[in-house]
């Protein structure tokens, strides 16, 4: 499990007031997860993935996302473990189904979700102009290790349960070589490197960040991903004790670029697996 999501039960409760169909399927936010160590009585923390949406509606794209969530549940749709899962990849897959179902509903079509079983079955049944259509939602994702690295580092710096406010910067990049390496770029190379080294580097970063924030110290360190040309630099600035109501944090994150990366090539490679 990664870093738990730090959230305000009061703020989540205010969001759920506007999402009655979703609220009816979730526990009281005041009972969700466990109390924060750094902000007792004010914040809690949870591994429930749906809190990535409902605890962060100050971001406009997530304020829109929770409306999609409410519309589909108000229409009677259900999506397996969507509201209970602690698994990020499962949550991402299920939210793809939510977005497709919501799009059909907004077009005025009747939508039903299919109960999950061990049998091969579609995800949605849609009535389109009097015709029944079975819909399977396929959401291929490549470079999963890169995505996981970005999310795990972001979670650490956004949600670490320490009473500190700060600005953070994380940059993962290839070490420059002189003379430059002219070998053609492999878009999967970074994912392979991060899959092999990400866990150990993240554990090292976590220890160092916790130590720096415990002393309310600024911090800058570069970490080598052993056996690869990848380097990750972490910086914490403007570190100060957080207000009792919760931390004030902002940050940026960068990861290896994909010059020469071909989305069409990735789709071709992924779709070939379905043949």
Short recap of the structure:
The protein has helices at residues 9-16, 20-23, 51-54, 60-74, 88-106, 144-159, 189-214, 263-272, and strands at 5-7, 34-35, 44-46, 110-113, 124-128, 131-135, 164-174, 219-224, 230-241, 249-254. By secondary structure, it is an alpha+beta fold.
Describe this structure in words.
- With 275 residues, the protein is an alpha+beta fold.
- The protein has 2 domains: 131 residues, no CATH class; 121 residues, no CATH class.
- The protein is flat.
Summarize this structure as a short list of keywords or feature phrases.
275 residues; three-stranded antiparallel sheet; flat; alpha+beta
State the separation between the terminal residues, measured CA to CA. 34 Å
Widest sheet, order of strands:
8-9-7-10
Largest sheet: 4 strands, mixed
Strand content: 15-25%
Helix content: 25-40%
**Uncertain residue ranges:** none
Number of strands: 10
Q: What oligomeric state do these chains adopt?
A: single chain
Number of domains: 2
Element order: H for helix, E for strand: EHHEEHHHEEEHEHEEEH
Specify Rg, calculated over alpha carbons.
Answer: 21 Å
Helix tally equals 8
The class by helix and strand makeup works out as: alpha+beta
* Global outline: flat
Rounded mean pLDDT is: 90
How are the SSEs placed, and which strands pair?
Elements: E1 5-7, H1 9-16, H2 20-23, E2 34-35, E3 44-46, H3 51-54, H4 60-74, H5 88-106, E4 110-113, E5 124-128, E6 131-135, H6 144-159, E7 164-174, H7 189-214, E8 219-224, E9 230-241, E10 249-254, H8 263-272
Parallel strand pairs: 7-10
Antiparallel strand pairs: 1-3, 2-3, 4-5, 5-6, 7-9, 8-9
């Amino acid at each position: 499990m990664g870093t738990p999501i730090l959230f305000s039960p009061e703020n989540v409760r205010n969001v759920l007031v506007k999402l009655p169909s979703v609220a009816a399927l979730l526990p009281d936010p005041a009972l969700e997860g466990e109390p924060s160590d750094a902000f007792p009585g004010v914040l809690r923390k949870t591994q429930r993935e749906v809190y990535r949406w409902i605890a962060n509606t100050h971001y406009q794209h997530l304020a829109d996302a929770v409306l999609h969530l409410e519309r589909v549940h108000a229409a009677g749709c259900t999506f397996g473990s969507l509201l209970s899962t602690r698994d990020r990849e499962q949550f991402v897959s299920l939210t793809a189904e939510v977005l497709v179902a919501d799009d059909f509903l907004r077009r005025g079509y009747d939508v039903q979700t299919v109960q999950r079983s061990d049998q091969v079955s579609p995800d949605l049944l849609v009535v389109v102009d009097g015709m029944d259509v079975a819909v399977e939602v396929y959401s291929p994702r490549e470079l999963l290790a890169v995505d996981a690295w970005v999310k795990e580092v972001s979670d650490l710096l956004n949600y670490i349960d320490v009473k500190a406010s700060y600005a953070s910067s994380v940059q993962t990049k290839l070490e420059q070589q002189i003379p430059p390496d002219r070998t053609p770029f492999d878009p999967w190379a970074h994912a392979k490197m991060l899959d092999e080294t990400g866990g150990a580097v993240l554990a090292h970063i976590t220890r160092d960040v916790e130590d720096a924030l415990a002393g309310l110290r600024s911090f800058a360190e570069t970490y080598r991903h052993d056996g690869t040309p990848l380097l990750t630099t972490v910086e914490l600035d403007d570190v100060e004790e957080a207000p009792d109501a919760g931390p004030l944090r902002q940050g940026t994150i960068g990861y290896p670029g994909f010059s020469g990366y071909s989305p069409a090539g990735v789709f071709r490679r992924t779709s070939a697996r379905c043949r």
